Amino acid sequence: MSSSSRQRLELADVAVVIVNYRTPDLTMRCLASLRVEKEALPLLRVVVVDGGSDDGSAAKLAEGIGRSEYREWVSVLPLAINGGFGWANNQAILKLAQAEVPPEFVHLLNPDTEVRAGAVANLVRELQEHPRCGAAGSQLLSPDGQRTPSAFRFPSAGRELINAAQSPKVGALIGVAPTAINDDQGPEVDWVTGASVMFRAEALRQTGLFDDGFFLYFEEVELMHRLRSNGWTVRHVSGSEAIHFEGAATGAGARSSRLPRYWYESRRRYFALTGGKATLIRANFAWGTGRAVWGLAKTIFGRSRPDGLRSSDLLRFGSWPREQDQMPSIATWGEAPGRLPAWMARG
User: Fold this and answer.
1) pLDDT in tens, 210-225
2) Nearest 5°: phi and psi at 91?
3) Per DSSP, what are the bridge partners of residue 76?
4) Which domains does the chain have, with CATH numbers?
5) β-pair partners for 196
6) Nearest 5°: CA angle at 310, between 309 and 313?
């Protein structure tokens, strides 16, 4: 690394936000992995948010962060309610925006991750080298070190059909590329995993923060869709690696587990916000068609790869947009934190 590149890293003002919900031990492990990054990024600071855990997490985190190795660069932000992933991150970002010196970059990191050496610095470097890059995401690894999907194309009716059919051959047949993107297709992508993603503060000032009408799932996809619509790029950084203990923070890691109601509601809101009612209807029709293809293949070939989606749940919770699904609720840089999330205000 050149001396000028090293100096730029040393001057980079980076804030990491980790949202904990009843996983304080995982959060402390995640935090411990950032200590090496602090050496390359002296201005690095961390805000650990407790999203209304109500199980003693906030006190446990405050005790751990009170140790000498964390005291000067890590703070805890306890929230009274569990307002969801996007809303909790917004509260930390809005608080950071009020600081005397707001951060230049905001790195969102799941508590069920551990960054490998250089992970945060490589995200910073990517953003510094590409001024129109609004978000840069890490390469996730399974606990045994295997690379897992981390960069994606935006959801579409065609991809809903492919995903429901659970067959890449269907995509090849209809000429639709799959959701996951391989490394050989270049670093610029539609969206990256929200488990480890760094945003440029300037981009968030322009486009807004998370839409708090989402409780969990799809909120990062919608935000990156908004970034792309405003002329920012999103990049996948293969040299930034983070081990992801998938599902440890949400309890929804297994493909065979039944997806919660809010997954369908978030999917419904995403399609309605980004494409309108007709887009959601097309996506649902495509998904139903794909699931019929899957059922036929299961009958003929006896193959079954169960996932967490249920046709009955999609019909019940995600088939038709509500009026509020097409009403954005986007926090803006500089507003005061504390406003109730839209999904909760709706009851």
Assistant:
1) 999 999 999 999 999 9
2) -60, -40
3) 48
4) 3-345 (3.90.550.10)
5) 109
6) 110
